[in-house]
Amino acid sequence: MATVIAMTSYPVKGCAGVPATGAELTPAGLAHDRSFLVVGPGGVFRSQRKDPRLAVIRPEVSADGAQLALGAPGVKTFHLDIDFGTGSPARADVEMFGQPYRAVDQGEAAADWLSEVLGAESRLVRVPPEHGRVTDGLTPGTSGFADSSPVHVLSLASFDDLNRRITAAGRPPVPMDRFRPNLVVDGWDAPQTEDRARRVTVGGGVLGFAKLAVRCAVTLVDQHTGGKAGPEPLRTLASYRRVPEGGVAFGSKFSVLETGKLTVGDAFDVTEWGTD
Predict the structure, then answer these.
(1) pLDDT number for residue 187
(2) Sheet harboring 268-273: ordered strands across?
(3) In percent, how much of the chain has pLDDT > 70?
(4) Does the pLDDT at position 85 exceed 90?
């Protein structure tokens, strides 16, 4: 039986992850996951693809979900009372992957802090209460500001197989955090088993397979320093994980079919399998 051995949420898209031993699984994934977005001029989102220093920003959401703290090397930690946008109709226009969204701007102090850390004009926004984004894939769902489907699953078997290939070529292994998974699963012997899981019961929730996780240049960023550290893992993934639509795939993405509480150690019980 496969089990969840690690769980991480990413409250601010592109910034550092927050490990947890337990979390609520909401319709948009782990609680608070990608509920905030950093945007530049014109409301266009910032990503580690072009702004790798996002990786050094470490967010923390308070237990009651009402406050956000942002830390980064060499600057004072910033504390924010989150504006959920429930008392005001004001909304900011933002853009992610060419798609327009509405968001709740978190104010000038947050903008000043982010602009200083990133060295570029930036603002912090949050998904509004009416956020109705629908994600695509085999099982449609919803998410905050995740690239697509809300729950990214990666198995230890897939990860270990990749690093065996990298080290066999005389190069150093890459750490798990390069892939920014929400759930790491162990207990399968064969790599890429997560690609065949179609319906999963985990803790108090149920997940439905959406799509393979197509990887990008974010995997080349050192998640501790915010510096580029390529060409691995993309060079090795390109040798055996190319997908017809272009790029390379590693790990799988899932939509949330039923919400509930998840805990590290929960069984990752696949109740329906696909053939590929």
Answers:
(1) 98
(2) 18-20, 3-9, 183-186, 151-155, 248-258, 205-215, 197-202, 268-273
(3) 100
(4) yes
